[in-house]
Structures are given as C-alpha cells and as structure tokens.
Specification:
The complex is a heterodimer of chains A (about 500) and B (about 160). With about 500 residues, chain A is mostly helical. Helices cover about 75% and strands about 0% of the residues of chain A. In chain A, helix 3 runs parallel beside helix 19. Chain B is about 60% helix and about 0% strand. The interface between A and B is large, with 71 and 76 residues.
Chain lengths: ~500, ~160
C-alpha cells in the first residue's frame, strides 16, 4: 500500500461523524486554553483523560491531539496582544509579536501567525506521514541498548532546554528520574521511595505530577496577584489584512521554520519549545538587518510559529512508532493509548493502521478547522482575554480536583496534586525549570529497564552500548551535545540566546 | 541571561544568595537521601544490577550537581527573582484539602462551592458577592457537566 492509499483509509476514519465531532471539540478547546495564559495543554489533557475512558481509542486520541496542536495556535494570541505567553513555546512569539501589536499591527501579526501555523502543521504532517512508516520498520531493529541511548539523548536535550543553566537543567532531570523510580522495582519486587505508603507502591501517576507541577503551581504563584488583562484593540477583517510585503517576507522564514521544527520535533526531549528558539535564532542570524528583530519583524513571528506547529506534529513520530514520548504532553497521550489497549511501538502501524492513519488525517482536518476558528473568529478569542483571572482560576482548581479524583476515585491522588503543586511552586522560586523533570519522570522506568536489560544480555559488558552503530551514534551525539553546551557555557560570549523581558513590557501592553 | 553583566566575582561562591543556599542544600539533601536509600537496597553486580543501583547513581549525580551549583555562576544574580507570597499556596492548598475531606461525605455540588470560595479568597480584589456567584456557577456547571453530561460516578449531593 502506498502512502496515498493509507491516507485515503485515514480520511475514511477521520471523516466519520464521531471523529469529526471530537476533532472539533479538541481543537476548539485547544485554542481556548492556548489563548488563556497559564492553562496549558498538559493540564487540560490531564483533566480530560478520565473522560476519554468512555470513548473509543481513535476518538479519544483525536480529541487529545486536537487539544495539543490547537493550543499551539491559541498560544500566539496572548503572546502578541498582551506579551503573556500561554506556554513556553509562545515566549519567542512575544519577542516580535508584541512590538507589532504596539505598532497597531496586531491584526496582521495574528493573521500571519495563523497562516504560518497552518503551513508549519501541514509541513509537519507530511513529514510525519512519510517518515513514520520508515522509522517504524527501522525501529524493529531497536534493542534495549538503542532505546537506552535514545532516551539518554532525550534527557540531555531536555536539560539543555533550560537555557539559563545546564546544571539546573540536569538537577531537574535527575529529580524527575528519582520521582520516576518511586514504586516497586520490576526485577526484584522491592519497594523504593514509598515512605510506607501502600498507594505509592504502584508509582506516582503522571497526571497528578503534571497537573500539580504545571497547573496548580502556576495558579499558586499567580492567585491574588494582579494579572494584566484586557486589550482594547478592535480586530476586524480589515485589520487582519497583512501589510505590504508581509506575506512575501514570510514565505522563506516559514519554510525554514517548518523544516527546523519538523526535525527537532522528532528528537525526543527537544519538542516545540526548543525548536521555536532555534528557528528564531536562525532567522536573526541570516537576516540582512538583524537589528529589526525584537522591534516587530514579521519573520520573527512567522518562523517560530511555523516551527512550533511543525514540531508538535512530528512529535508524534517517536511517540507512536517507538513508544518514546518526546515531551510531557506526548507521554500523557501514550498513557491514554495504553489505557485503551493500544500499545505504541513499531507494530502500531501494522496492528492499528486505521487508528494511526485516521489520526494523521484528522490532523489535516483539525488544522483546517483551526484556520477557520482563528481567522474569522479571532475577535471572540480576544474577548476571552478580558475575563479576570480571579474568576478563572477557582474554576480551574475545581476542574483539576474533579478530574484527578475521578481517575481512580481516590482522594490520595488529589493530595498528591496538592503536594506537587507546592513542590512546583518551590521549584519556581528556586528557578528550576519543571519541564525536564517531567520528561525524566516519564522516561525513568523505561531507561532503567532498558539499561539493566542491556547489561544482562551483554553479561555486564558496558561496551554493548557503543557496539551497534545506532546506539553508538546516539551516545556519541549525546556526548557531543553535552560537550558543546559545557564549552559554550565556559566561553559564554559565543552563545547569546534571545531573552524577553516580559516584566517590563507588560505595563506597556495595558494602555 | 546576559553574561557580560555578570560580575566576575559572582561566578564563585561568595556571590551566592540565600536562595542559592536553599537550592544547594535541598538538592544535596535529595541526593544524599537517595544514595542512602540505594545502599539500603541491593546494589547488585554489573551482570545483574540490583534495585538500589539506580537510586544510588542518581543520588550521586544529584550530589555532584549540588557542588556544581555551589561553584558555578548563579543565575539568581542577574535574573529577576520571583517574589515569595504565601497567600496563593495557602489558599489553594486549603481548597484542595477541603475537596479531599468533603467530596465523600458532602457530594460534588456543595464541595465545589466550598473549593471555589476558598481558592477565590486568595484574590483580594474579588467582592464577596462575585465570589458567591462564582461558587454557585461553578458548582452547578460541574454538576451538570461531570455528573449529568459525562456520567462520571460522582454523587451530586450527600443524599
């Protein structure tokens, strides 16, 4: 079967009445939470996970995926209008998007981000559809050493994501690995780090950790603070028209951004956030007049937006074909698949072909829906930014409590969410980024199992990790990455990463 | 972070803030505790790695990182430190504890109203009337959506 036959089959699945409805719910909800600062896809998917138990696996995953890539669209709205990024990937869009809004060109900036997002997504979907089957057949040769090496690379990439300090990134990853070890050791059956709680012997659930550290912690930090709200600008059709030269100037950056995003999205650990930074830095580097960046260059909006949307689509490649999630949201999605009895891995494309191709086809449909949702209806989303935060966060807390409680009908889980909320708040105060921790937490059991299995198979010979070309190559790449970061950390002048100063500019966005 | 702004001196431990010391001691504490936990389990051999090896190794790495945090340059000196406020954490925790205690005896609707009131009271700019309206709205919305539309196995009231 060629890729076209497969896609045709996929559209057969994705165009069914039920799939369309869930796709629509997913992307709408995704845009909604993407627009609202402080409520990311992670928390929403965590809250909705118990609800998807009642759906069939294809609809469930189509809806959850819709939330994920939909939020990448919504993200840019708050970044451009208020200089408040909804997720970490949105921080880059603030750099040039907000200056554009201050120049009264918010409409055309929003229009270009939507177009760039759509272009990036379509690019990513095509990469996904053409590479996933190849990688899946390749992945059949993966043994425990290869999986270990791949995950090691992912963890190092995630630690580097924290641009301020490599050490803090590594601390975050290591803390996550420790949390991931909580529970019963699979080889010996001895309990580890359970502190006498019987409930911990199964390990800590992903949802309590993720909603606690990403959702509740941020609410704890922001509740009671005056959060900037309200944008007075009217956005009509006329203001959405791109300015002279905007489209022409954005075509190549969109293309470059989408390529960068597609490649980095497939690397576990890199994901949308890091790819937006690299896309932005690339544009700035090759621009004829780099000084325009940071003052409202349309390329500085188009390239990162194309890049993060491409990355959020190609992120499904390792998740579905290897079963190795690239970022925390993907891990929750893996969890959702496994709950429904669909084991991710190389065999997914064979055993559950309708699900895989249906999902790919639903990405096309979802992105078309997002185009419709975001261009004519942008005014509606802007209105949403006027709802005071004080009325929103108590509702979010209620939803989080209900969502987490109903997974296992367990109040202990709600307590865990609270504990991790406090833990995340502390990490925030101590400037330790939570994202690498979560990736460490997710990969810990897999990385330990594959490491131990490799050594059992090789009878204790450590050379096994570098003997095969794939795992040797991955280990070499990890070492290179680490070495490069250490060197650029010791000789800092060479690495100047864009850094927004959100705190100062917020006041400017108010009037 | 703009490295050129960093004073050469702050690259060493003289420039560490109180917050850095807290970070270092917490990281070192976690590291040492997990090494100890690892040792109390079976470390195993290279051929057959035991349950304690990973906790021990991660603990050792964490302790090493604590040392690096101490001698490395501190980002605290250049980055705005987030302000500490206990209001948010205390109110949100209280709301979640209330949920844990009340959900079984009271049922969903009254519990959500109480959770909403407790968490909303972290924001001083909200008037009592709007808090009460919000509580009413949140509890009816949650009851309708979760119990009636989605059919989650939750009791709306205690009877």
């Amino acid at each position: 079967m060629t890729i076209f036959d497969n896609l045709l089959m996929g559209f057969g699945v994705a165009l069914s009445w039920e799939a369309l409805v869930y796709c629509f719910i997913g992307v709408t909800l995704g845009t909604f939470i993407g627009v609202l600062p402080g409520l990311g896809p992670m928390v929403t998917i965590g809250m909705l996970l118990p609800i998807t138990y009642y759906l069939d696996p294809t609809s469930a995953i189509i809806m959850l995926a819709g939330i994920y890539y939909g939020s990448q669209y919504g993200n840019s709205t708050a970044s451009i209008l208020l200089n408040l990024p909804g997720t970490s990937a949105g921080a880059v869009t603030c750099l040039d998007g907000h200056p554009l809004a201050l120049q009264g060109r918010a409409g055309s900036a929003l229009f270009m981000t939507t177009i760039a997002s759509f272009f990036g997504s379509c690019f990513g979907i095509i990469v996904l559809a053409s590479l996933a089957p190849l990688l899946a057949s390749f992945a059949l040769q993966f043994g425990p050493t290869e999986y270990f090496a791949l995950m090691l690379l992912g963890l190092i990439a995630a630690a580097i994501l924290v641009r301020d300090s490599l050490v803090r990134g590594l601390v975050s990853v290591l803390l996550g690995l420790l949390l991931g070890l909580v529970g019963t050791d699979i080889y010996s059956g001895s309990p580890r780090f359970t502190f006498g709680f019987l409930k911990l012997s199964d390990g800590i659930g992903l949802v309590p950790i993720a909603t606690g550290v990403f959702g509740v912690a941020l609410i704890m930090a922001n509740a009671g603070r005056h959060v900037v709200n309200g944008s007075t600008e009217k956005l009509g059709w006329r203001s959405m028209m791109p300015g002279p030269g905007d489209v022409r100037r954005s075509i190549l950056p969109m293309f470059r951004g989408a390529s960068i995003g597609s490649i980095l999205g497939m690397l576990p650990g890199a994901g949308p956030t890091i790819s937006t930074f690299i896309a932005y830095a690339t544009e700035k580097k090759i621009a004829r007049d780099p000084s325009r960046f940071g003052r409202g260059a349309i390329e500085g909006v188009a390239a990162p937006e194309a890049s993060n949307n491409a990355a959020s689509q190609t992120g499904f490649v390792p998740t579905l074909t290897l079963g190795v999630p690239g970022d925390p949201v993907m891990a929750v999605m893996l969890g959702a698949l496994m709950i429904h009895g669909v084991p991710p891995g190389p065999m997914l494309l064979v055993d559950h072909a309708p699900l895989f191709w249906g999902l790919v086809a639903s990405f096309f449909i979802g992105n078309l829906l997002l185009l419709i949702l975001n261009i004519p209806l942008i005014g509606l989303w802007v209105q949403l930014l006027k709802v005071p935060y004080g009325l929103l966060y108590p509702m979010i807390i209620s939803f989080v409590c209900i969502g987490v409680y109903s997974i296992n009908n367990s109040v202990f889980d709600v307590g865990l969410v609270m504990a991790f909320g406090l833990f995340g708040y502390m990490m925030l105060l101590l400037s330790i980024e939570p994202a690498p921790m979560l990736l460490g937490f997710i990969l810990a059991p897999m990385i330990e199992e594959n490491f131990r299995r490799s050594l059992i198979l090789s009878r204790g010979d450590f050379m096994t990790f570098v003997e095969t070309p794939i795992s040797g190559g991955l280990i070499a790449l990890s070492a290179l990455l680490l070495g490069w970061i250490i060197v650029s950390d010791l000789y800092p002048k060479k690495m100047q990463v864009p850094k927004e100063d959100a705190s100062e500019e917020n006041s400017g966005g108010q009037n | 972070m703009n490295f050129s702004d960093v004073d050469e001196k702050t690259r060493f431990y003289k420039g560490l803030s109180a917050r850095d010391w807290i970070t270092i001691s917490l990281v070192a504490g976690c590291g040492v505790y997990s090494m100890w936990e690892g040792l109390s389990l079976d470390l195993g051999s290279v051929r057959r790695i035991g349950a304690g090896a990973f906790p021990f190794a991660i603990g050792a790495l964490l302790s090493t990182m604590a040392i690096f945090l101490g001698i490395g340059r501190s980002p605290e000196s250049t980055v705005d430190q987030p302000k500490i406020s206990l209001r948010g954490p205390v109110h949100i925790s209280a709301a979640m504890i209330a949920f844990m205690i009340l959900i079984n005896p009271l049922g969903l609707a009254p519990t959500i109203a109480i959770v909403t009131i407790l968490s909303a009271s972290a924001d001083r700019s909200l008037k009592l009337r709007s808090v009460l309206l919000l509580a009413l709205f949140a509890s009816s919305l949650c009851t309708v959506v979760f119990v009636f539309l989605l059919g989650l196995p939750l009791q709306p009231f205690w009877w």
